[in-house]
Amino acid sequence: MANNMRRSVKIARQNAGNWTGRANQSDERIGGTPPGGGEELSGPQQMTIRQPAFLEGVGLHTGRAVRMAVKPGKPDSGFTFVRTDLAGSPEIKASVENIAQTVRCTTLGRGGEAEVQTVEHLLAALAGLGIDNAVIELNAPEVPVADGSAAAFVALLERAGMAPQQAPRRILSLPEAVWITGKDSHLVALPADTFKVSFVFTNRHPAVGNQYAEFVLEPGNFKREIAPARTIGFMHEIEALQKQGLALGGNLDIAVVVGEEGYLSPPRFPDEIVRHKILDLIGDLAVLGPLHAHIIGLRSGHSLDALLARKIQEVASG
């Protein structure tokens, strides 16, 4: 059985191809500060990217080739996905209301008209770098997986450059603590004057065990400490997922793969798994826009993340 699973992962790796990314060399200022000046803002400004950037690869779950273009967004527009492969190029705003499903990834959708899968790593990169507005065009139903982390998206966005916009940054804040509880998982959001995540990951596998990490989100430590972390993949689950039509673009390089006796792919950090859980959480909560809160997680995942986002939206102000 293990040999069959290894073979299926090898086939997925061969099908995945290589991702490539580049930034447009134009220097178009969309919503940025006018070269001649303009009214000065006293507080933090909204940010977008300076120029379009492009990434090609495959989707993690669909295994389909995809070309993605990330473009500057207008002030107060947030993050908007555009399915250019569908008639009329429908737009899907990254919002709590548009969370369509949370099985193995976060999918955004608009009334069954169009969906886009596995948005969390890209949204985490945008939020982690302090970007507020962007348009993401896709010619397939899923964001490219790249290397299974957010590192490729961070590099892409940095090449595109950052552009301040003539609009004040609006940050959500909590008047009180809110929480969500699952069967064996919990998420708590506490009032705070920054965005901080504390997370506990537990597993009975002796090679994995329990992991804890805590970070205050800012672009520097997001790039170094969070963005490179890949998701966990247990070897016994891979074949089952592929039979369900999931993880078709997966391979040993885009996950911390764990077999019966231990890691089958070298981890980038001793606690890479919990760091990726924090990465997912940042991306899932990015549908709220900028947020000040201390998030404490225990064994939670995309489903609880979505429920907490909805809860925060109900009580937050900003």
If you had to describe this structure to a student in words, what would you say it looks like?
The chain has 318 residues and is α+β, with helices and mostly antiparallel strands. It has one domain (17-315): lpxc deacetylase, domain 1 (Ribosomal Protein S5, domain 2). The chain is built from 7 helices and 19 strands. It has helices spanning 2-16, 120-128, 151-160, 219-226, 235-243, 272-285, 302-315; strands spanning 20-23, 45-49, 53-58, 65-72, 79-83, 91-93, 99-101, 107-109, 115-116, 134-138, 162-168, 172-173, 178-181, 186-190, 195-201, 211-216, 231-234, 255-258, 291-298. A 6-stranded mixed β-sheet has the order 1-3-4-10-5-6, covered by helices on one side. Strands 12, 13, 14, 15, 16 and 19 form a 6-stranded mixed β-sheet that branches. It has a 3-stranded antiparallel β-sheet with strand order 7-8-9, with no helix packed on it. Helix 1 (2-16) packs across helix 5, helix 2 crosses helix 3 (151-160) and helix 2 (120-128) packs across helix 6 (272-285). The longest helix is centred in the N-terminal third of the chain and has 15 residues, at 2-16. The termini are far apart. Residues 1-20, 25-30 and 32-38 have low confidence and may be disordered.
Quick structural summary:
This protein is an alpha+beta fold and 318 residues long. The protein has a single domain, classed as lpxc deacetylase, domain 1 (Ribosomal Protein S5, domain 2, 2-Layer Sandwich), CATH 3.30.230.20.
List keywords for this structure.
25% helix; 318 residues; Ribosomal Protein S5, domain 2; six-stranded mixed sheet; alpha+beta; single chain
